[in-house]
Amino acid sequence: MTGTIFITGATAGIGAAAARRFVQAGWRVVGTGRRQERLDALGQELGDRFHPLLLDMTDIAAVEAAPDALPEPFRAVDVLLNNAGMAPPMAPAQEGDLADWRQAIDTNITGLLAITRALLPGLIERKGLILNLSSVAATYPYRGGAVYGGTKAFVRQFSLDLRSDLHGTGVRVTSIEPGMVETEFTLVRTKGDQAASDALYAGMNPMTAEDIAETLFWIAGQPPHLNVNTIELMPVSQSFAGFQVAREG
């Protein structure tokens, strides 16, 4: 199976790895991002099967206009990978910055909704697939994760309800919920603190962007009568913490 996949946030991490994996298998890929130089580099690497699209997911007017601006060979989108996302710093809620929270909500939720709605008519016509990148943070709480976890819980629930709305159309919808993947995610969250990122992943053998890309590719290759509702992945070295207890005295 080959076709056209539209990948948001394709300039790094899981998005870039997915672009490479799908192009390698003969797919056409539309890859969006905010960094032109990275899009250009990825385009040079992947060739004419990759269409770079400069796009800020928080610019809703631009997101809504994106499908109509695609060149003809890339217009028939069969798969949407909603990968673009970010996390605010891990301050507890009482110390959080509203601007950071809003950026995460605008990217992880509002932008995802806008591009999904814009591409839905074509996805319904082609009985396509929507892959929404959620997180284990949608299910398991941790200190400092209230807003990020909340956005990913939205993505998870939106995926389930979207599938219900699309009942009978043939469109498949999957929520992908990874644990720790070593990408630029922590660098963005800590606003460029490489030492913090290195410390988080040190000695724990995290998943890689390529691991998740391979999972995404596997889902896309399933027969059209089979839907993967949700899939949760963690590195073996990551599991579940105990409850917190605040003690008096």
Task: Describe the protein.
This protein has one domain: NAD(P)-binding Rossmann-like Domain (Rossmann fold). Helix 1 crosses helix 8 and helix 4 packs parallel to helix 5. A seven-stranded parallel beta sheet has the order 3-2-1-4-5-6-7, with helices on both faces. It is α/β, with parallel strands linked by helices. It contains eight helices and seven strands. It starts with a strand and ends in a 16-residue tail after the last strand.
Topology of this structure?
Layout lengths: L3 E4 L5 H12 L3 E6 L2 H11 L3 E5 L5 H6 L13 E4 L15 H28 L3 E5 L12 H20 L6 E7 L6 H5 L4 H8 L7 H12 L9 E4 L16
Parallel strand pairs: 1-2, 1-4, 2-3, 4-5, 5-6, 6-7
Helix pairs in contact: 1-8, 4-5
User: Which oligomeric state applies?
Assistant: single chain
Overall pLDDT: 95
Report the total helices.
8
Largest sheet: 7 strands, parallel
User: What's the CATH architecture?
Assistant: 3-Layer(aba) Sandwich
Stated plainly, the CATH topology is called Rossmann fold
Provide the structure class. Answer: alpha/beta
CATH H level, superfamily name: NAD(P)-binding Rossmann-like Domain
Helix content: 40-55%
- How many beta strands in the DSSP annotation? 7
CATH class: Alpha Beta
The domain count comes to: 1
Major sheet: arrangement of strands = 3-2-1-4-5-6-7
Low-confidence stretches: none
